[in-house]
Write a structure and sequence with these properties.
By secondary structure, the protein is of the alpha/beta class. It contains ten helices and 13 strands.
Length: 284
């Protein structure tokens, strides 16, 4: 094989310009809204918020189908038969993406899957890291790339503060949902990725700005993240003041390069407007 093509899902929230720069192929996950089954990324997330406000219900989300994976894998192989395909997948325990991808690639020796055990900015951080690695090592065999990915997965950290607990509760993606009653007390839960699961681990109290900056400081201190690149995740509605303060805080702690990632439809359906998260890799 001569080179590698990277594939991920829209749930990784990889910015369009970055996907284009590195040639990353993005397959849509899906959102059922007002009776329509829509591709994630094909419509503004504000439509989700408007739907929830109007109906007090949430859309449902679904994984990329086996057929969609199969069609893309076959097309890429037909166009570039000398290249291997490395699929860095949305967390396998949160949805059927990984299982569907494996089914869709049956009989395709040129396709390899890795469970990133992450979503949104966490998955994006790993995919972008792999893309940059391939810039310097374009002919790396897939076995080497898988070993690298699995090593990075172990060091990958992603956490976030949801913007609206109604979305998180209705979405049902958090394993210990007992924390979600904290809305009554004005408490905001910290959601962390643990072995592929979204887990509520800690509680913060106070205005969203104070909570976000406190969470950021705690994450940088507790995770000991690499200073090379730090990823900030936000859903539509996060105040610009909070974004500026987050960047200033990270810079003051030695993080000079920050990359903002905007949550798409799948993530916004489960976290609501105004959410904030941080992702990065534990320093070696």
């Amino acid at each position: 094989m001569n080179g590698t093509i990277l594939v991920a899902e829209t749930g990784a929230d990889i910015p369009t310009e970055i996907a284009a720069k590195y040639g990353i192929w993005i397959l849509p996950m899906h959102i059922s809204l007002d009776g329509e089954n829509l591709d994630d990324g094909a419509f503004p997330v504000e439509r989700i918020y408007e739907y929830h406000k109007r109906t007090r219900k949430l859309p449902t989300t679904s994984a990329t189908s086996p057929g969609e994976y199969r069609d893309l894998f076959l097309r890429l192989h037909e166009e570039q038969p000398d290249k291997q395909i490395l699929h860095l997948c949305y967390s396998a325990v949160t949805t059927a993406t990984y299982q569907n991808a494996v089914i869709g690639s049956e009989g395709m020796s040129w396709v390899t899957h890795v469970d990133t055990k992450n979503v949104s900015g966490g998955q994006a951080a790993l995919v972008i890291r792999m893309a940059r690695y391939l810039e310097d090592h374009p002919l790396s065999p897939v076995e080497e790339l898988v070993a690298k990915a699995e090593e990075w997965v172990k060091r990958l950290r992603f956490c976030f503060i949801p913007g609206d607990l109604d979305y998180l509760r209705a979405g049902g993606r958090v394993s210990n949902a007992s924390y979600l009653g904290a809305a009554v007390l004005g408490i905001k839960p910290l959601i962390e990725m643990e072995d592929g699961k979204l887990v509520s681990t800690k509680k913060y109290r106070g205005p969203m700005k104070n909570v976000c900056i406190k969470m950021l400081r705690d994450a940088l201190e507790n995770y000991n993240l690499e200073t090379e690149t730090l990823y900030f995740v936000h859903s539509e509605g996060l105040l610009e003041e909070i974004k500026r303060e987050a960047e200033a805080t990270a810079n003051s702690l030695g993080y000079r390069c920050t990359q903002w990632i905007k949550a798409g439809g799948v993530i916004s359906t489960h976290s609501g407007p105004g959410g904030f998260g941080v992702a990065g890799f534990v320093a070696e």
